[in-house]
């Protein structure tokens, strides 16, 4: 155990060794990365996951809890003193208040340590007492994960990819209009550079609000202390043959390379490379509502994410992951509570089909990858209402920003995922034979029995996929 832990720490690098030595050698550590794409609800996911691991009455599909192997669970200080703590208590208070509300989204990296006393199973376990397993949950924006795909691209290639799809996306036409009035081969004029970067950033924010997922560079939307810096002041440009040394094109190329070197690589070196398991939350229902192009954009984003985990994809990543690699990745379509349970199989099937196509596109071979549909916090009840002589399966919930409860039927998802994926691949502007609606619900007041966490849909199955074998 000591030798394997030390070897593990060495493979993580100097920081990993420090973390390993900060706890007893006999205490295994699982680092779970949690990220989400475009309003997928990762703050609620982490809050509900921790609450349901502390009080496990609603976790029957999580085998360590179901068989009683987890004796107790408790929060304690995280090992990384320089990373902000995930504000679990404040977020849980928002969800369990007398008038509950959704917590504020996190827009930076944060971390939380949950320690579990686990009784080992099997013959050897019967002679041993409980051991402590630490679960370090690392929360970071999905936009940062998508940036990893930039490491495989140069400025010309990235620009060509973006300009090929930007016109029909929100704010894209405005950026192209501004770009057309400027000459990329001209000598750099900083006010022009800033105007182009602002316009492109406005496009990224508008696209994300409209349900698009593939929005890079991610730090443009979450600049933090880098706001206004040259490393965030560039934008895609059409190719210029033999650009001059002082040209706008050459300077944007330099800043793009600086972004990869000074923003992308440090995040993945210091945080991402130390993760054992990863869950990526996606708002698939929101993408379906936004139309075929948003669904195709989500598939492309999933493929880019899988490319990040592909062995040998990038020299930097190959060195980063040498001796260690994330071995399980779960893509989870959130907000399953917006559908009656009769439609959950369709939502899961569409998620699996998107993942299968993304795997093929990324030529992925590596970690075990899964897909499912979940609701980390159930905000609706189910019902059936008469409509045109038939009964529609609906969900009822409290509308966001209102005290009014409403019944909602979003439309029937197809049993064959190809009915959505085919028009998405072809770039159709709208669904031909159906409309899919989205309604935003507020959380319902909770009455929890002793030992119960917040109500959810398949959160226990997600925990089993990600953590079950480790416990």
From TrEMBL:
Q: Which InterPro entries match?
A: YcjX-like
Protein name as it appears in the record: YcjX family protein
């Amino acid at each position: 155990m000591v030798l394997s832990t030390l070897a593990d720490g060495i493979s993580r690098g100097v920081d990993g060794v420090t973390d390993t030595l900060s706890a007893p050698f006999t205490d295994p550590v699982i680092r779970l990365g949690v990220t989400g794409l475009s309003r997928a609800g990762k703050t609620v996911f982490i809050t509900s996951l921790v609450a349901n691991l502390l009080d496990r009455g609603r976790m029957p599909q999580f085998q360590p809890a179901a068989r009683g192997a987890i004796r107790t669970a408790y929060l304690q200080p995280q090992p990384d003193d320089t990373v902000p703590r995930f504000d679990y208590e404040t977020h849980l208070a928002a969800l369990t208040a007398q008038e509950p509300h959704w917590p504020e989204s996190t827009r930076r990296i944060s971390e939380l340590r949950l320690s579990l006393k686990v009784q080992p199973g099997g013959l050897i376990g019967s002679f041993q007492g409980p051991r402590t397993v630490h679960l370090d949950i690392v929360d970071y924006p999905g936009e940062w994960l998508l940036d990893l795909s930039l490491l495989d691209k140069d400025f010309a290639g990235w620009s060509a990819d973006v300009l090929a799809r930007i016109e029909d996306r929100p704010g894209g036409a405005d950026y192209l209009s501004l770009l057309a009035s400027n000459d990329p081969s001209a000598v750099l004029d900083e006010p022009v550079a800033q105007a182009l970067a602002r316009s492109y950033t406005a496009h990224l924010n508008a696209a994300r609000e409209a349900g698009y997922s593939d929005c890079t560079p991610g730090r443009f939307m979450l600049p933090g202390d880098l706001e206004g810096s040259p490393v965030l002041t560039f934008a895609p440009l059409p190719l210029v043959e033999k650009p001059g040394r002082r040209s706008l094109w050459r300077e944007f190329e330099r800043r793009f390379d600086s972004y990869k070197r000074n923003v992308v690589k440090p995040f993945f070196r210091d945080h991402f490379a130390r993760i054992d398991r990863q869950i990526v939350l996606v708002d698939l229902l929101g993408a379906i509502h936004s139309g075929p192009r948003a669904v195709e954009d989500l598939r492309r984003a999933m493929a880019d994410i899988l490319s990040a985990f592909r062995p040998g994809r990038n020299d930097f990543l190959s060195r980063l992951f040498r001796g260690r690699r994330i071995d399980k990745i779960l893509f989870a379509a959130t907000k399953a509570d917006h559908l009656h349970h009769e439609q959950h199989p369709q939502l899961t099937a569409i998620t699996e089909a998107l993942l299968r196509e993304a795997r093929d596109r990324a030529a992925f071979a590596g970690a075990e990858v899964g897909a499912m549909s979940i609701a980390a916090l159930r905000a609706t009840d189910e019902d059936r209402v008469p409509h045109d002589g038939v009964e529609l399966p609906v969900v009822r919930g409290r509308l966001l920003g209102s005290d009014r409860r409403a019944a909602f039927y979003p439309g029937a998802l197809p049993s064959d995922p190809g009915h959505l994926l085919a028009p998405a691949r072809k770039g159709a502007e709208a669904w031909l034979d159906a409309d899919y609606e989205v309604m935003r619900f507020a959380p319902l007041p909770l009455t929890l029995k002793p030992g119960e966490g917040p109500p959810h849909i398949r959160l226990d199955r997600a925990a089993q996929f990600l953590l079950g074998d480790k416990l």
